[in-house]
Amino acid sequence: MASFCMNCGKQTVYGRTQTHHRGVAGKRWRKRAHKTSRTFKPNIQKTTIVMGNTAYQMNLCAKCIKKFRKDNKLSSQRFQLQASL
To answer: Which pTM was predicted?
Structure first.
């Protein structure tokens, strides 16, 4: 599955995680906090969108799914629509 949203274009972002600790006893910073690279992936889900009388399958992030549900463009009876197409 594609790792980007077809509506807003949200995609995988690279960044770092960092642990925060004081180091060794005596408040000396001999051991530094570790920084490791990681990826932040959006919550992408395959959904069926109804616009007019046609149904489209799209990969959307969770935020866009909420917007489409609010506008009543998202089909709650997804399986019945796919069977009729």
So the answer is: 0.62
Q: What is the DSSP pairing of strand 44-51 with strand 54-61?
A: antiparallel
Print burial letters for 60-72: b (CB count within 10 Å at least 16), e (below 16).
bbeebbeebeeee
CA distance linking residue 37 with residue 72, whole number of Å: 40
pLDDT digits (tens, 9 = 90+) for 43-81: 999 988 887 888 889 999 999 998 888 887 766 544 343
Token pair, residue 22, equals 């004081």
* Close Cβ partners of 65 (under 8 Å, ≥ 6 residues apart): 45, 47, 74
Nearest Cα to Cα of residue 85 among 58, 54, 60: 54
Distance CA 75, CA 48 (A): 6
